[in-house]
Design brief:
single chain, 453 residues, alpha/beta, Aspartate Aminotransferase, domain 1, Aspartate Aminotransferase, domain 2, 3 domains, 7-stranded mixed beta sheet, 5-stranded mixed beta sheet, 18 helices, 18 strands, 42% helix, 17% strand, globular, binds pyridoxal-5'-phosphate
Length: 453
């Protein structure tokens, strides 16, 4: 029975010869792939619903062409982030500033002086520009940039503490984003993990004990940036660890996670680069969290330690590509000039500003769907400032048939618009909208309303 049904499916060559799949707007291989996928889809349908009839050949060809067209587009593309989560890991973390985008394009479309000294006409250093900027902006003696912060931590431990016992608080043995676990990175680096304290409480004496017994020869401080322990807790700040490290003559290293270069909307006790840097020998943090730049990992510290990092063979394996380097330099120039990159600017947005944006958007959308401007709770995201509510404003859309259909329609719009459903309402948080994205949402809603009616 099933065999008979499936044998009624058209043959591949017939399907490929049928318009619109026969048109040569797309390469043959792609149309063939579309035809194959359309037939596979049909086979699946017939298997589950044997009573279903086989559609006319032209209809299958149309579906084949649609699938081929879908495959012809790059999968990675722009989306509108209406979630209010500023550093959304699933949505690419930090958007770049116009200056950084321009720098990427300029560097990508031609040759560049990536490793060329223009004054001397000879080979130059790849990261000298950003190192100088990083030192000027932070007061560090030395700086270096690698592929991401996970790479920065790996390089720091591999180069500085191979075979050494590295003491770290049990409350800081964190996992970040699934594949980055502090104990695993440590094992990979060849350092020996020496756990001190407990999950909720670690005191200076806990570190001192493993230093005096000779179990540990280095200290690592990790900012547990994506979770918060509440209640009966205690940890030791780098300011308290530094004198201990000095007394025992061991290095104190720091993984800050999210490094902010300047004052921002974060709470006064949020650890910043300027608080940690003077205490540690080397500090690492991500370029695409609170800094608001490209994916990269930044290392700051003493000249002596930075020289060891740069000379290690892993430095070459983990090096930053030229496009990220261009974006990082431009982002640092923004900070130098007092311009906040998009992500930190979104975090710093004032309530009145957000309210006005939400009210304007609600007015523009109200003819397509019942809606209202509302205050709502946002998040920083990206493993920064966990537990910190980020009061925001948004437009709450209340389609009569419920929010699910609209959520899906917006997600399938080009460019896709990513929203949240909260309390059976669809929320468009305006904090994370970039200039011009209100118009995209309005167009999508107009099309949706046209189809609904
Ligand atoms: C985010 C984070 C990392 C990983 O950084 P990536 O740039 O994602 O590689 C490592 N450590 C801490 C504390 C973090 O917050």
């Amino acid at each position: 029975m099933e065999e008979r049904l499936l044998s009624g499916l058209p043959r591949m060559d017939r399907l490929l010869a049928c318009p619109p799949l026969s048109c040569d707007a797309l390469p043959y291989a792609l149309r063939k792939e579309g035809a194959r996928l359309a037939l596979a889809e049909l086979r699946e349908i017939l298997r589950h619903a044997p009573a279903a009839s086989i559609p006319p050949l032209e209809e299958i060809a149309r579906r084949g062409l649609a699938l081929a067209e879908e495959r012809s587009q790059p999968r990675l593309g722009r989306v509108v982030n209406a979630t209010g989560v500023v550093l959304h890991t699933n949505l690419g973390r930090a958007p770049l500033s116009p200056r950084a985008v321009e720098a990427v394009v300029r560097t990508a479309e031609g040759y560049s002086n990536l490793e060329y000294h223009l004054e001397q006409g000879s080979r130059g250093s790849r990261t000298a520009h950003v190192e100088e900027l990083l030192c000027t902006l932070t007061g560090a003696e030395g700086a270096f940039a690698v592929n991401n912060n996970a790479a920065a931590v790996l390089l720091m431990l591999t180069a500085l503490t191979p075979g050494l016992g590295v003491a770290i608080s049990r409350g800081e043995l964190v996992e970040i984003g699934g594949s980055f676990r502090v104990p695993d990175i440590m094992a990979q680096s060849g350092a020996r993990l020496v756990e001190v304290g407990t999950t909720n409480k670690t005191r200076v004496e806990d570190y001192e004990r493993v230093l005096s017994s000779g179990q540990a020869q280095a200290l690592l401080k990790v900012h547990p940036s994506n979770f918060k322990i509440m209640g009966f807790t205690q940890s030791v700040a780098p300011q308290k660890l530094a004198p201990l490290a000095r007394r025992y003559g061991v290095p104190l290293l720091g993984d800050l996670g999210s490094g902010a270069l300047g004052p921002g909307p974060w709470p006064p006790d949020y650890p910043t680069i300027s608080q940690w840097l003077p205490q540690v020998q080397v500090l690492s943090f991500s370029g695409d969290k609170l800094l608001g730049g490209p994916q990269c990992g930044i290392l700051l510290g003493t000249s002596e330690h930075l020289a060891l990092l740069k000379a290690h063979p892993l430095a070459r394996a983990l090096r930053l590509d030229k496009l990220s380097l261009a974006a990082l330099e431009a982002t640092l120039l923004d900070w130098r000039d007092g311009l906040l990159p998009p992500a930190p600017a979104m975090l710093a947005a004032k309530q009145e500003e957000l309210q006005q944006k939400a009210e304007q958007l609600a007015a523009a959308l109200s003819s397509f769907c019942p809606c209202a401007a509302v205050s709502c709770a946002g998040q920083v995201g990206g493993g920064a400032l966990p537990g910190e509510a980020l009061p925001s404003w948004g437009v709450e859309l209340c389609p009569p048939a419920g929010p699910e259909g609209l959520e899906q329609a917006l997600r399938q719009w080009r460019p896709p618009i990513i929203t949240r459903i909260h309390n059976h309402r669809l929320l468009v948080d305006v904090r994370t909208l970039l200039p011009g994205e209100e118009a995209i949402i309005q167009a999508a809603l107009a099309a949706w309303a046209g189809g609904e009616r």
